[in-house]
Fold Replication protein.
Amino acid sequence: MELRERLGMMPDEYQKMELFKRKVLDFAVKQINDKTDISITYEQHKEGRKIVGFTFSILHKIGSKDIPLENQSELFAGMTDLEAGTIRVRAEAYIASLIAKGQNVTKAHRLNILKKAVEERWGFEDVAKDNGAKNPENKNAKVVLNEWEKISNGTRFKDKDGTIWVKDSGMLRTEGTNRWIADSQIAKLFPMLTVMVEEGI
């Protein structure tokens, strides 16, 4: 079966594939990328000059911009930075565990997880147990590092600036430039990261 038939095109429609790509395929991809929580790209496959197929890749756009900052501020209103950071770390670790199990975490699901984490004050039992530390930052660092250990290597994160980070061999590095973060800095950076989801089709 020829590509035109597999795409459901009539014999007299879009005689040139360039026209089909511009009027149908590129238009649909732009609409999806602009108006949904997924990003689509495609690669065309050729035999000589003839296009014989397409491969589509889908990336779920999950990051700090998925939950508007004003909603995050409302969620954590009245909390100290230590409290908000502790809850956020526990929630992001839970989201990372869901993703590692192959579950799809949508924007709405992420927001519900954050709401539940705030309501139930996730992570505070660990801070309360650790009353040996005199400094609240040390307590929070222990909670953060405990959650960090539970996250699978290969998990990708995004910070507020859009930088992509990857957990690699238990450490944290940037994707592409391979800038590594010292273990002592993970507790400070991890609460500012958001887990990313990526699926290729």
